[in-house]
Amino acid sequence: MIILGVEATAHTFGVGIVTSEGKVLSNVKDSYSSPDKGMIPDEIAKHHKDVAEEILSKALKEAGLTWKNVDLIAYSAGPGLDPALWEGYHKAKGWAEKQGKKLVPVNHCCAHLSIGKIWNKLEDPIYLYVSGVNTQLIFSEAGKYHVMGETLDIGLGNMLDKFGRVLGLGFPAGAKMEEMANFGNYVELPYVVKGMDVSFSGILTRVQQLYERGQTSKEDLCFSIQETCFAMLAEVIERAMAHTGKKELLLVGGVGANKRLCEMLDIMCQERGAKFFKVPLDLAGDQGAMIAWEGFLRKDEEKEMTVNPHWRVDEV
Ligand code: ATP
Ligand code: FE2
């Protein structure tokens, strides 16, 4: 079986094609970017509308296929930016009707988890999902995802990006902050773990204050944010693993590109006889292949829906 997936939850429009064995045949995308203005929802939707047909043709061509070979179309129905989601839905629905294919709505967050799981050939991992918007600790039981812990305010990526803007690093800032952290020393910051949840807004306020006072270097602040926030995550995940007895940890989401975060999680896993896994860069960010694979997994669930900008992973 061949599945085509359409991703359009945020600034990326992507089309990916996978087989029912989880092999990625093509994964083409194009992202809206505007270094100075940030994310303007209507402009993002216009971008997606403009590039959609070209991305689709490239994806089919790269896979060496035509519409005739495609059995199913999946699209990301949420969560995400409303105008972007509608654009993706209309494109996917239009293609499905024209080509006479079944259309399957999928949850974007579930897709991040399932592509990481198949790529690493995992049985039953616990997931740490750390992107711009999301910071969640997730496990699966009886076919449902459960959120065991999460951020009580902003996602870690958004927090890094907000402070990055203060430092004049541009958007997104996570990778640049990681480089600067290599030259920093530790200064104490608030460490905010509440039960299985974490909170980053107090840390953001504190680093902004320290930066404005001018006595702490950018490098020290970047290093200390990483050490503090990553240690908070490692602490709650370790407890979650002890509690659930899971032996595999899978890190997904854009912040997962951070080497120091991976190192800390890897050490934590080794110390408790568990294994740490991540996702290769081309499958880590937003793209269509993960939507296609999630669509294959959900193909027999009959869901009557269009889009849902606030669709949580534990509501699927
Ligand atoms: P989602 O819709 O899944 O929540 P998203 O668009 O919010 O996705 P991703 O694309 O998964 O987010 O991740 C983007 C985030 O990852 C940005 O906040 C960026 O700063 C952060 N990031 C990228 N590389 C690094 C890095 N090396 N270290 C830390 N953060 C990073
Ligand atoms: Fe995403």
Please outline what is shown here.
By secondary structure, the chain is an alpha/beta fold. The chain has ten helices and twelve strands.
Descriptive overview:
- It is globular, with a radius of gyration of 20 Å.
- It is built from ten helices and twelve strands.
- The protein has helices spanning 41-63, 82-99, 108-119, 156-166, 174-181, 201-213, 218-244, 259-271, 281-284, 288-297; strands spanning 2-7, 12-19, 24-31, 72-78, 102-107, 126-130, 135-141, 144-150, 193-194, 197-198, 248-252, 275-277.
- The model has no long low-confidence stretch (mean pLDDT 96).
- The chain has 316 residues and is α/β, with parallel strands linked by helices.
- The longest helix is centred in the C-terminal third of the chain and has 27 residues, at 218-244.
- It has two domains: 2-108 and 283-315, 2-Layer Sandwich (Nucleotidyltransferase, domain 5), CATH 3.30.420.40; 113-117 and 124-280, ATPase, nucleotide binding domain (Nucleotidyltransferase, domain 5, 2-Layer Sandwich).
- It starts with a strand and ends in a 19-residue tail after the last helix.
- Helix 3 (108-119) crosses helix 10.
- The strands form three sheets. The chain has a five-stranded mixed beta sheet, sandwiched between helices. The chain has a five-stranded mixed beta sheet with strand order 8-7-6-11-12, sandwiched between helices.
- A hairpin with a 4-residue loop joins strand 6 (126-130) and strand 7.
- The structure holds adenosine-5'-triphosphate and fe (ii) ion.
- Fe (ii) ion (FE2) binds at residues 108, 112, 131, 286.
- Residues 108, 112, 131, 286 line the site of fe (ii) ion (FE2).
